[in-house]
Design goal:
heterodimer, A: mainly alpha, MetI-like fold, 13 helices, B: alpha/beta, D-Maltodextrin-Binding Protein, domain 2, 2 domains, ten-stranded mixed sheet
Chain lengths: 305, 279
Amino acid sequence: MTTALTQTVGLTRPKTTRFNANPIIRIVLMLLALSAMSGLAIITLFIFKEGVPIIAKVGFRHFLFSSNWYPLEGEFGIFSMIMGSLAVTAGAMVVGMVFGLGCAILLTQFCPPRWVSIIKPAIELLAGIPSVVYGFIGVAILVPFIRDYLGGPGLSVLASSIVLGVMTLPTITSISVDALQAVPRTYGEGSIALGATEWQTTYMVILKAARSGIVAAVILGMGRAIGETMAVIMVAGNTLDVPHSILDPVRTLTSNIALEMGYAAGDHRKALFATGVTLFVIIMILNTIALTVSRRRSKGKVLAK
Amino acid sequence: MRWALTTAALLLALVLVCVDWRGGKTTPINVIGSTSIQPFAEMLAEEFNKRPTNNLQQNWTVDVQGGGSTAGLQAAVNGMADIGMCSRELKKTPEEAGTFTPIVIARDGLAIVVHPSNPLNGVTKSQIQKMFEGQITNWKELGGRDQPVRLITREEGSGTREAFQKLVMGKSRISRKALTQESNGSVKELVKHDPAAVGYMSLGLVGAELKALTVDGAPATAAEVVANRYPLIRPFLFVTKGPPSDKAKLFIDYVLSPPGQQMLEKEGLIGAPNKLEQP
């Protein structure tokens, strides 16, 4: 096709390119792709190799279901941190979904296009702010506010949920917007033609059609929330207790690793790797659940048609 | 063709980077460890690096890094650091006392700090222990305001925490409900803004914004630490693996010399018992 084009335009191919670079580029790209994958494989192997023996030594039950974390005395129980990570992530998802999805609906359904071109990039800009900055704003503004008006130490599940929720906004909003925009216009028009109001159309037709994309957005947001470390260390308080209310401080799995990595040696270090293994498994489980749910739902939709 | 050019340019850049990297003229003396000693060591290093050069030291500059006492000890073992900083006494185990040469560069009080608005002025050591164990949960029990005690501790492995554990807690454990912060600075930040908080930190870093409680009747001041009346005192150590190397000794001697010690004393620390005489 290229030759046809050059011929019609009246150009000839330069004669100087003697060797064909394509195979080389293909090999280079293949190597790059493989090295990215081998990176994942090496990381997985390494944390499991370092972490699993200590879980076996401490006892699986004790490691997962005890809240006694006294690494220097050889007690490694991470139950409170698992609960901490789950609580903070759940909270962040509530905040992220309410605001992110709300924003996406507004942008795609009820908003003049010119506004979209301003609001969407602005929200995406949030992704470029470093997490320390989020943490700092959390400590400087959010934490004193919670301490003064709601009680407790301020450093809390609530503070971390809000900070993480805002951090996941760009992911959730922009992917949800794409999903909602991908819904064929005929769906909405058909619904309106049948006499549904705009809100009924959005709620009962568009959102349902875009469901799998929205679930994907939430999964990605969740990944960011559960893996975030720096901002959480700054606003979560890092206690070793299982939280009983959203005003209680918590320690998450990631902040446990980051807090103690600098010092840890021997079994303590291995226990931190084991914390990483736990985090890895939790993320796998959450992703699998979310993916199966979204798949089953979309299958059901096809059948219902 | 463009391809080859790009590759060549990249290679050239790589070579240049390497050359530049290896062409540095000064060799660092690496000092790594405790975040409690770090600010003081940085100050000393700055002065040390500014000093007029003589033949021996003209190529040496001191690099100070934090990371914590335990990290400092590790760095000294594996050769990453020429000098490790440790803000607690060495444990009497072959891995610590058997490996390192400790040099006391100064002594520091461990201050129990509260919000300036806290009406309480003094506590006893056993009251501090009960607070941090989680037995005393309200300031009322100590004669203060009716508000919950908010404990602030340091992370596992911190020299300040280990010194506190040894000096105050003994065998008992710090409560699980204690908020954990990762540096003296963030403990200070938290206590400064929370009227119910209590934490512990290096006396030299307390500053004017916090209130340091009297412990067992002795006010938390440098003078009381020097007089050995204040009960919570810990050493600030420089450690080296085996005897100090020649370049490590350059900085250690400077820190123990009169100008170095005066600088530390001006910052609220208590001079070393084995400081050098005027050369």
